[in-house]
Each structure stands twice: as structure tokens, then as C-alpha cells.
Write a structure and sequence with these properties.
By secondary structure, the chain is mainly alpha-helical. The chain contains twelve helices and no strands. The radius of gyration is 19 Å and the shape is globular.
Length: about 260
């Protein structure tokens, strides 16, 4: 009970005192990203739609670009809200009287999102390779149960690793991150945002692979993963990733046993 109360208090502390303008900006971008994903999900069910998921192994240039946009919107929807504590801490550190406060916080956010846009591009490439080898359905669902089992087990094991906890710790402690990574100016803010993005990517990359287990356009699965990532980042409890890791490993073993 005490650990649960401590986790709740950590969440409340991370939310309390956020600048209203920052909430509005992040909320608007997040809502736009989710809206775009909902639009794509509904369009993917319409045959012949220009926004439908590519079905043939030969993706056109426009289809590949559309998939990059889809993955980018997904990363914005999932990861931008979890960056609020860090963005707010940086804005407070600059001070309300700083003449370039808005542009510096924006540069930090751009650096953060640049990392996830790079990941979105790489994920698009991975999806194309899997699709080209007939390992996924048109909706991006892995078809080979053994491959599903491997993804689940790998993602689960990574939740227990020191690397996961190190990266997660960097995301959980905004003041500590800023104290060690502080740089002046817009370029410095951009580099700090990119450093924060790398830490978050280092902690979440294995979980992102789970998007291929139930489908990259399964928005309920995307929402569930977003919730798990947010809880992992906004609480100080080591029990959350361990519990998630245990569930994933058991699920992977179960899929393997059922498929053999």
C-alpha cells in the first residue's frame, strides 16, 4: 500500500505546477496525432482509399511516405505526453522572465521528437521488410507464432535489464537530467531534447516492437502501450517494469507452447 501511495504521489508531483501554455501546446499536438491515427484506422478499412495500408509487397514512394507519417503520428501520440515533466522542468529552470523561453522549450521538444521521427522511419523500414517477406498481414500483424513469441520474450526480458532501468531513471528524474545535460542557447536546447529522446528510446524500444504483435494500427493496443509507458516513466517504482516484463515473458512462452 505504501509503495502504491508513493507512486501516486510521484505522479501528482509530476503533474502539479505545469505551465498552462505547455499543457495546451502538448495537448493540442497529442490530440491532432490521435485524430490522424483514428482517421487512418478508419480509412484502412475502406478499399481503394489513398490512406489505406499498402497490401502489395511493392510499396510506392507515396505509400512509404504515408507509413512514415503514420509511425510519426503514433510516436507523437504515445511519447509526447510523457515528456511533459521534463519540458515543464526545463521551462521552470529557464524562469518565467527569460526572453526566449518559448523558443527554447520548443527547440527542446523538437530535439526530443526528432529522435522519435528517426525511430518512426526505421520502424517503417522494418515493417516493409517484414511485409515483403510475408511475415505480417496487411495490418502489420506478425503471422508467425514463433516470431510473436520471440518478440514477447525479448521485450519482457529487457524490462529486467540494468540498461532499461538506467534509461528509465534518466526519464524519471528531470532535474537530475538537466543538471548533467544542461546546454545554453537554442542549439543546446535541441541537443538536450535529443539526449532526452535517446534515453526514452533506450527505455522503450523493446515495448515498441510489441506494436507488431497485435498490429500497428490496432489503436486499443497503441493506447494500452501508451498507458504502460506513461506509468513506467511517471512513477519511481521498479515493480511496474518487472510486472510488465513477467507478463510478457509468460505470454511469449505460452504462445510458443501453444504453437508447437
Amino acid at each position: 500500500m505504501g509503495a502504491d501511495r508513493g507512486g501516486l504521489e510521484a505522479i501528482l508531483r509530476s503533474v502539479a505546477g505545469k505551465p498552462f501554455g505547455l499543457f495546451i501546446s502538448v495537448g493540442a499536438l497529442t490530440a491532432f496525432a490521435w485524430g490522424y491515427l483514428v482517421f487512418l484506422a478508419s480509412s484502412s478499412m475502406t478499399m481503394g482509399s489513398a490512406f489505406a495500408m499498402p497490401m502489395s509487397s511493392e510499396w510506392s514512394r507515396s505509400q512509404a511516405l504515408l507509413m512514415v507519417f503514420m509511425w510519426t503520428a503514433m510516436m507523437v501520440a504515445m511519447m509526447l505526453p510523457t515528456s511533459l515533466p521534463m519540458l515543464a522542468a526545463y521551462e521552470r529552470a529557464l524562469g518565467s522572465a527569460h526572453p526566449s523561453r518559448f523558443s527554447l522549450v520548443s527547440a527542446f521538444a523538437v530535439g526530443y521528437l526528432a529522435v522519435w521521427i528517426a525511430f518512426a522511419t526505421a520502424a517503417t523500414g522494418l515493417q516493409w521488410v517484414l511485409h515483403d517477406r510475408a511475415l505480417t498481414s496487411g495490418m502489420g500483424v506478425l503471422l508467425d507464432p514463433w516470431l510473436v513469441s520471440v518478440v514477447l520474450i525479448v521485450a519482457g526480458i529487457y524490462e529486467f535489464t540494468p540498461a532499461k532501468m538506467t534509461m528509465l531513471g534518466s526519464c524519471r528524474t528531470p532535474l537530475g537530467f538537466l543538471a548533467t545535460e544542461w546546454r545554453e542557447g537554442r542549439s543546446g536546447a535541441l541537443l538536450m531534447g535529443a539526449a532526452h529522446g535517446r534515453s526514452c528510446l533506450g527505455g522503450c524500444w523493446a515495448l515498441m516492437l510489441l506494436l507488431f504483435v497485435l498490429g500497428v494500427m490496432n489503436l486499443l493496443w497503441v493506447l494500452a502501450l501508451s498507458g504502460l509507458i506513461a506509468v513506467e516513466k511517471l512513477t519511481q517504482s521498479a515493480a511496474v517494469p518487472r510486472l510488465a516484463g513477467g507478463v510478457l515473458v509468460v505470454s511469449g512462452i505460452t504462445v510458443f507452447m501453444v504453437s508447437t
